[in-house]
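Data deposition worksheet. Section B asks for the primary sequence of the deposited chain exactly as it was used as input, without tags or linkers unless they were present during the calculation. Section C holds the resulting structure in token form. Section D is free text for depositor observations; keep each observation to a single sentence. Incomplete worksheets are returned to the depositor.
Section A, Depositor: J.P.
Section B:
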Amino acid sequence: MRIRANTKLVLWFNGKIRDRKVGLNILKRYLSWTDKDSLEAILESDYIVKLCALENESTRAKAETIYLMTNMDDINQASIFYKKRYKIEVCFTIVR
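Section C:
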């Protein structure tokens, strides 16, 4: 699932829930500093998902980064599925 860049999340960090929400731009910087491909985040205080930041490869891209959440263990596989789904979605957009 793709999430908006201005979303703030409660993180699961070092085995503990953080006490404040964090913006995705901070998470992207953390991922680049630590050379990790994903982090765990908490949704609605119940669901643990993996969060990743990917470079937007689209030629019509407005945003440089795409943020994805998944329950899959393999982030690379999740990004491949997202790219396929997005191509299908673009096929059905109405050009005005």
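Section D:
The two ends are 26 Å apart (CA to CA).
Helices lie at 24-34, 75-91.
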